[in-house]
């Protein structure tokens, strides 16, 4: 397949259309959107302020010129470099996160996990809960940053093993006063055992033999963030589930993201860890993507007369 190249004197509207078609021919389903976002990114670099897709579309209708660098970025995206690596940004629940090589790019379905964690936290705190949140396997820090930004007064902690990913998380969490620990999610934060209100996690969960189809994931997301261990990919999710149970205060809430094929395996893992009120949650596409549950409260003691 040949490279994308601009025509002499080509206006923005035509370049956007052709760029989108070219990306789609390379297998990028969101080709038109990506082309507009790349123009917005180039404009932001020159203007030093946010530029929306709507403004790009308006400028295209006005016959504006193509910003310098568009041709190169379209070709790189056509080579299936992740859009977020080209722009250095990922948008997540109203936040703009810094991302790049060495860190997992947050996905839209994880925004739903944050929503459920937030709802559970508010309910528990209203009932007198402690107000402590932990994000295990934080990666870019997307979950922790969102919960810290949206939950006033929460004490938020995040754990990440990879030094490369932790560097990105540190950048994204700095303005949110999140306590970041670079370490093993299965042993970190021993001082919080039995004290946490909500634990949320998007751990590695892809089975060892299941290679992702999308080149953006297969070739650019770090292996440490993808493969959960074992033929079913459940080694890490099971271990994180057990650790979450230990971290939670009685009555505390845990939610985890997983593959759509792992729903029953996750329910079993939750039961074995000791959780109750276990629930499978579908993502925006109707696929089982999250599992949640509560740590049981102590049984009431009988009072002898």
Characterize the structure shown.
The protein has 305 residues and is α/β, with parallel strands linked by helices. The protein has helices at 12-25, 31-47, 53-61, 70-78, 83-87, 108-126, 142-150, 163-173, 215-220, 223-226, 235-247, 263-273, and strands spanning 89-92, 95-98, 132-136, 155-160, 179-182, 196-201, 248-257, 276-282, 288-294. The strands form 2 sheets. A 7-stranded mixed sheet has the order 5-4-3-6-7-9-8, sandwiched between helices. Helix 2 packs across helix 3 (53-61), helix 2 packs antiparallel against helix 4 (70-78) and helix 11 (235-247) runs parallel beside helix 12. The radius of gyration is 22 Å and the shape is elongated.
């Amino acid at each position: 397949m040949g490279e994308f190249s601009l025509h002499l004197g080509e206006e923005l509207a035509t370049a956007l259309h052709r760029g989108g078609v070219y990306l789609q021919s390379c297998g990028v389903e969101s080709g038109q959107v990506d082309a507009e976002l790349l123009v917005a990114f180039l404009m932001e670099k020159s203007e030093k302020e946010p530029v929306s897709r709507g403004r790009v579309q308006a400028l295209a209708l006005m016959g504006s010129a193509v910003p310098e660098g568009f041709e190169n970025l379209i070709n790189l995206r056509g080579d299936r470099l992740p859009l977020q690596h080209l722009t250095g940004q990922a948008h997540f629940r109203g936040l703009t996160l810094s991302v790049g090589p060495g860190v997992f790019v947050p996905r839209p379905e994880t925004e739903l996990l944050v929503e459920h964690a937030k709802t559970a936290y508010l309910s528990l705190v209203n009932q007198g809960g402690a107000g402590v949140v932990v994000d295990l396997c934080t990666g870019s820090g997307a979950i922790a940053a969102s919960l810290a930004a949206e939950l006033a007064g929460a004490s938020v902690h995040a754990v990440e093993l990879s030094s490369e990913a932790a560097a990105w998380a540190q950048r994204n969490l700095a303005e949110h006063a999140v306590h970041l620990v670079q370490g093993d999610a299965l042993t970190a934060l021993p001082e919080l055992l039995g004290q946490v209100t909500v634990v949320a996690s998007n751990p590695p969960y892809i089975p060892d033999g299941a290679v992702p189809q999308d080149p953006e994931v297969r070739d650019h997301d770090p292996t440490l963030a993808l493969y959960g261990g074992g033929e079913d990919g459940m080694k890490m999710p099971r271990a994180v589930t057990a650790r979450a149970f230990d971290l939670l205060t009685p009555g505390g809430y845990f939610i985890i993201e997983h593959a759509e094929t792992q729903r029953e395996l996750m329910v079993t893992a939750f039961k074995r860890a000791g959780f109750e009120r276990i629930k499978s949650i579908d993502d925006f596409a109707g696929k089982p993507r999250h599992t949640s549950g509560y740590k049981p409260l102590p049984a009431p003691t009988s009072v002898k007369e």
